[in-house]
Amino acid sequence: MYIIIGSIAILLGTCLLFFMYKEAFRNHVSEIELKFPNFPQSFDGMRIFFISDLHFRIIDTEIISQVKGKVDLVIIGGDMLERKVPFSNIEKNLELLRTLGPIHFVWGNNDYEGDFRRLDATLLEKGVQILDNTAITYENNEEKVVLLGVDDVGCERDRLDLALQDSDEGFRILISHNPSIVEQIQDENNISLVLSGHTHGGQIRVFGYGISEIGGLKKRNNTTLFISNGYGTTGLTLRLGARAETHLITLRSN
């Protein structure tokens, strides 16, 4: 009897591990539409492909095919790298993302585990706009969408004040690998949207509980915070209850 129960337990455990491994390599594009009363009319319908926490993964061509031709700009929310990630992965991912549109990047904590100087050089070589406590402005008919980016909060490299100094007035989107940046935002900063990753949605959630909250939309005063579960994994190549995801975000004026 005990042998039978033990065999069933081993079988169920093996099936669960196989499922969790498969979940870690899911290819999912979450399409969301966000409306803001202050979003510029001339940019209405602007589309952002947001991907974060790639780690060891190479982007599947299925995802590229699904969003190609639908993207105005690409944002990488950090953690393209970690210790032992081959640079061939980095170069392949950047080549794939370049087919979608101009790329913007912020640093994540795991990026500093590897050869971050080589990563910096590779990003510049591929024409990627690195937002390291800086900002870039897109302007149309005298209306502006401003992308601000901060270096990693966890590594204490973030300087939101410098990014704000570098920023024009306009609809402000802040990209930060670590969502805890929202604790620094003041109403007078006029940051309408924050895009983040880092948490992996907890990566492994049991009965709805994990070491971090599940990704999604949150509201903090006048700022909308969007947290991605991320595309890759770190530590264990397993996921449960926090699916791997990328995002096609459409911004609308309400």
Can you put this structure into words, describing what you see?
With 254 residues, the chain is an alpha/beta fold. Helix content is 23%, strand content 26%. It has helices at 2-24, 61-67, 87-98, 116-125, 160-165; strands spanning 29-36, 46-51, 73-76, 103-105, 129-130, 134-140, 143-149, 171-175, 191-196, 216-220, 223-227, 246-253. A 6-stranded mixed sheet has the order 1-12-2-3-4-5. The longest helix has 23 residues, at 2-24. The protein starts with a helix and ends with a strand. The relative contact order is 0.21.
Please tag this protein with its features.
single chain; 254 residues; alpha/beta; 6-stranded mixed sheet; 12 strands; 23% helix; globular
Instruction: Write the H/E string, N to C.
Output: HEEHEHEHEEEHEEEEE
What is the makeup of the main sheet?
Answer: 6 strands, mixed
Please report which band the strand proportion falls in: under 5%, 5-15%, 15-25%, 25-35%, 35-45% or over 45%.
25-35%
Unreliable residue runs = none
Overall pLDDT = 94
Distance between the termini: 64 Å
Number of strands: 12
How do the strands of the widest beta sheet line up side by side? 1-12-2-3-4-5
User: Which term fits the overall shape?
Assistant: globular
Rounded to the nearest angstrom, the radius of gyration is 19 Å
Protein structure class: alpha/beta
State the share of residues found in helices, binned by percent. Answer: 10-25%
Structure annotation, total helices:
5
